[in-house]
Amino acid sequence: MTKRPIKITVRLSQTEAVRFDALASECGSKKEPLIRNLIMGVEIKPRPTEEQLRLVREISGIANNINQITRLANTVKSVSPAQVEELQRLCSEALSLVRESL
Known about the structure:
Pfam families: NikA-like. By secondary structure, the chain is an all-alpha fold. It has helices at residues 14-27, 31-40, 50-76, 81-101. The protein folds into 2 domains: 1-47, no CATH class; 50-101. The longest helix is centred in the middle third of the chain and has 27 residues, at 50-76.
């Protein structure tokens, strides 16, 4: 653990304190690490929403299905029209999920 022997006190206005609390809450960070990250120039990003996490899980599942079909096609050295249609459907589903989230 890094030792941090220097203590700095900062006074904030009510507006600044509310904004600081909101920023810490948005990125899911405690206040002290947030200040350190800001000082070090780390890009502060908001925590992903539940909808974004759901989208990532769904796209991951779709990608897994595509990989399984592709692996089967490489093993058998042929792809049926039904498999091609399934791949197209999965790709379309993934694309529409991404579009919905934007």
